[in-house]
Write a structure and sequence with these properties.
The chain is an alpha+beta fold. Helices cover about 40% and strands about 15% of the residues. It is built from eight helices and eleven strands. The chain has helices at about 5-15, 30-55, 60-65, 70-95, 115-135, 140-165, 180-185, 230-235, and strands spanning about 105, 190-195, 210, 215-220, 225, 245-250, 255-260, 260, 270, 280-285, 300-310. Strands 4-11-10-6-7 form a five-stranded mixed sheet. A four-stranded antiparallel sheet has the order 3-5-9-8. The chain has a two-stranded antiparallel sheet with strand order 1-2. The protein is globular, with a radius of gyration of 19 Å. About 45% of the residues are buried.
Length: about 325
């Protein structure tokens, strides 16, 4: 088991710099052109991620980190897939007379082969969730077929990378759909510059940081602390101590709310137990409602945590904090 579930916490901390919002985020209106450019934005990010990783680390580096051949060759195949996705989406937009977006400037918090592969697992999982969440809004059958075909390949990438990390390649019988603003909030953590001729109608939520734990997360057992979340909610949304706030866990087709409590230091939110039924790469947002999890009620997130079934997390090695 090579995965460090606390990498997601560092992503949330970097996202905080990209999310200085004080207004409530609203659900965007989209059309096929917007959705294709949304997908292209994500594919550019993934392409650059693999391009950098293959340039920064050699085949020997990955073997030394425990990723045996043909892992490096398969990473090259994944990079080729992402490049092909960029080309296909750009061509589809141009053929429809729609200006395609362009590659921006990115920064990825990967410092060695292991952290690179760990982040790869996160990005591929987010990609699957993005395509799945957008599928219901695509009108043209041709575009839906293209998106569905890319989604299937991204899902295979995810399973392969997860298995390479010693995780279950298919931890949940359903993949997890995510809305546009939730995905954009995660992608914004990596975008550090550049400009696009296309303005997409998406906004980032305030970031949600997860406190590092010395244990792996298990459903129906583990507690989770959201670092500084109450203090942030007070500042950005004037949330009071007696305002009910819920940590909503998105896993597969489940959306499970758990009411948070404020920790003794009056800074963090905490839940005592992750709900039963969630597994794999799980997304968490803070919501002002226990029943309506639309963007208008979200005050922070998503955070990403890797969750194991109760009693099935690895005993060694222990998670590492970043």
């Amino acid at each position: 088991m090579r995965f460090s579930h606390t990498l997601a916490a560092s992503l949330a901390l970097s996202a905080a710099q990209a999310s200085p919002l004080v207004k409530r985020v609203t659900t965007p209106k989209v059309d096929d052109g917007i959705i294709l450019n949304y997908a292209l934005t994500l594919e550019y990010l993934e392409r650059k991620f693999y391009q950098d990783g293959l340039a920064n680390y050699t085949q020997a580096d990955f073997v030394a980190a425990g990723f045996e051949d043909p892992f490096y060759k398969n990473l090259q195949e994944i990079y080729f897939d992402e490049q092909t996705h960029v080309s296909a989406l750009s061509a589809a937009l141009a053929a429809a007379g729609i200006t395609p977006t362009v590659e921006l400037q990115y920064s990825f918090p990967a410092t060695d082969p292991l952290s690179f592969v760990t982040l790869s697992s996160v990005l591929e999982g987010v990609g699957v969730s993005a395509y799945l969440g957008a599928a219901k809004d695509i009108v043209e059958d041709e575009y839906l077929t293209v998106a569905g075909s890319i989604l299937a390949v991204e899902a295979r990438h995810t399973s392969y990378i997860r298995a390479s990390l010693g995780q279950s390649p298919f931890p949940n019988p359903f993949d997890t759909p995510l809305g546009y603003n939730k995905v954009f909030s995660l992608a914004a953590a990596f975008i550090v510059g550049g400009s696009s001729p296309v303005t997409l109608p998406f906004e980032a939520f305030p970031a949600l940081a997860v406190e590092c734990s010395q244990y792996y997360y298990e459903a129906d057992r583990s507690s989770v602390t959201f670092s500084g979340a109450f203090k942030q909610a007070q500042k950005k949304f004037k949330v009071a101590k007696d305002t009910p706030i819920y940590a909503v866990f998105f896993s597969g087709l489940l959306k499970l709310p758990v009411q948070v409590r404020i920790t003794a230091g009056n800074s963090d939110y905490k839940i005592n137990k992750i709900p039963a039924g969630v597994a794999g790469q799980v997304y968490v947002v803070l919501s002002k409602s226990s029943t309506d999890f639309s963007d208008e009620n979200v005050i922070a997130g998503p955070a990403i945590i890797e969750v194991y079934p109760k009693g099935m997390s690895p005993s060694e090695p222990k998670p590492k904090c970043h």
